[in-house]
Amino acid sequence: MANVGGQGAEGTKYPPSEFSQKYARVLAPNGKLVSPCDVFGEGKLFDKDIEEKTRLAFKVTLKKLDKLNTVSEINKENLAREKIDQIIECFPNTLPKDLPEVLGKTKWTKKTAEVSSWADWWEMHEKILKSLKKQAIHIQNWWEYTGRPSPGDEEILNSLKRLVSGVLTHPITIGKVIDTYTPKRKKDKPKSIHLMGTDRPEATMIYAGFFTEILAANPINPIKITLVSPDPANKQLSQDCGPKSPMLINQRCKLTAWDGFYHDFWQKWIKTKKVEKPDVAMGIHPGLHAEGVFEFWEPTLDLLMEENILTVFTVF
Fold first, then answer.
1. Where are the beta strands (DSSP E) in the chain?
2. Beta strand 253-259 with 247-250: parallel, antiparallel or unpaired?
3. pLDDT tens digits along 212-250
4. Residue 27 CA to its chain's centroid (Å)
5. Rounded to two decimals, what is the model's pTM?
6. First CA to last CA across the chain, in angstroms?
7. Cα angle vertex 102, ends 98, 105, to 5°?
């Protein structure tokens, strides 16, 4: 009988992640999410004992989550949605494996200015939606193992859609900023964006291939992306594709990364005319309001104002 434990599961503290890692071999043998009837029963992968252990583990995981979730009148509605998302997070390999590939091959059928909501985006990505609906069926088939009432097919699908939007929010936002705020250029003339204070989400966007949504939002012009940050998540990228050796990560996208603060990057690379001034500089959720953060950003903010650089910041 197969061992259902996964390496590293014991060290994970977030209950859904712990469950997902430990029971991935049961819920997703061969790396693909399946239904209980595919793994339990006569002649199947696992016997009754493993089935009962899986059922118990689901319930233990949800009890752990109950202790973490504090209900109030203010967060009641959001918490109800969050509880569904937390259960969905228990399932391994819920995002389509071919998501980056599908995104890279899918052209937006709407102008970027017309994409003002996730509903608009999903209308252009039926293939991804079809994959999520298949995943939702498997998750619905497992739901009774949680011991909780099923929220229904639609709510499970909506939760899966939130997983997708969670990983694509950054590239789509960046793409729309370039389209909306940079000057119009002739076809095939590049545009440049400098992303300041980047961390793990931006690095993941590059490594996972989700940056192609930046290009989908800007189908006419090539894009040069420069990531500047002292964050550890940016360090490897800065070693792979520093300002002296930018990397062509797509026929229409060149990437540069630098390890450090943006005002220092400016002095070393832009002031010396080794790197171009950006069409737009952008910081995603920099947390300028948080205690002790503004002082690190102040030299960069002063620089951007002095140089009259178009700058965009996002907030939660």
1. 191-196, 223-229, 247-250, 253-259, 280-284, 311-314
2. antiparallel
3. 999 999 999 999 999 999 999 999 999 999 999 999 999
4. 23
5. 0.87
6. 47
7. 145
